[in-house]
Amino acid sequence: MLRALLLALALCQPTAAVAGTLDLEGSLTQGGLVFGTATPGTELSLDGQAVRIAPDGRFVIGFGRDHGPEATLEARFPDGEVTRRPLAIAKRDYQIQRIDGLPSNMVTPPEDVLARIREEAARVAAARAVDRAEALFESGFFWPVEGIVTGIYGSQRILNGEPRRPHFGIDIAAPEGTPVTAPADGVIALAETDLYFTGGTLIIDHGHGLSSALLHMKELWVAPGERVTKGQAVGSVGSTGRSTGPHLDWRINWFKERLDPALLVPPMPAPKEGTATAD
């Protein structure tokens, strides 16, 4: 009877709340992607925007090229506790790149193709807006092709003397036909062989709004809806769209935020003999 009484008293005692946890790993810098874990059941927001969190607490957040010096990550833990963590976002310096000799119609598109450009941009934006619940990015990332890096993230391009939008990817020169592989696990969200600016274009959805874009490809070997694994061949290097030579333009996006792929992978391996040196 005494043991039963003690057990009943123990069951009546309030259960101690488990303290909420919030851990971040990655680059708190312009163009950076951050991987996080929080207590399962936590609700998250970044500067007021809701952030998807997996059942086991995993999530990602990213900061665009020109993000300001501060951000705020707010977490509401399952026990009701709310914490606001200020994040200091490091500022970066970007290079200026001049490219002359491009055909004038590729620098300033003619009026008769503007409708096409807008329609293609809408399709690309829709693919980047997908918020897949699977955390496929957990496979990690590696280079989709090896070669000479000829264009870096964030650089300002001046085409035929006219300033243009910053470059949001990393250009890798390689011989035409070189296989291109998926940089991480994902699902093909878009596969187009002839977009005006980017030619052969793949967008791979890695989950939680994170996606890779592989541009200027010669061939596409996968179709929308197809699942791919890290290292799987998905196409080949080309020079399609607005391009001056065979290369792959690899981009990373977290929804509308354009991130730096180079921050997710080790340094590019030393070039092999005979590799293309310019694009």
What is the percentage of strand-forming residues?
Answer: 35-45%
What string, H for helix and E for strand, traces the elements in order? HEEEEEEEEHHEEEEEEEEEEEE
Residue share in helix: 10-25%
In CATH's first tier, which class of the largest domain applies?
A: Mainly Beta
Radius of gyration: 23 Å
- Average pLDDT for all residues: 88
Which regions have little confidence, pLDDT < 50, spanning 5+ residues?
A: 1-17, 275-279
Task: Throw out a few tags for this protein.
Glucose Permease (Domain IIA); Immunoglobulin-like; disordered C terminus; 20 strands; 11% helix; 279 residues; 2 domains; mainly beta; 3 helices
Secondary-structure blueprint of this entry?
Layout: H1 2-12, E1 22-26, E2 33-38, E3 43-46, E4 49-51, E5 58-62, E6 70-76, E7 82-88, E8 96-99, H2 104-107, H3 114-128, E9 148-151, E10 156-159, E11 162-166, E12 170-173, E13 179-181, E14 186-195, E15 199-207, E16 210-220, E17 227-228, E18 233-237, E19 247-254, E20 257-259
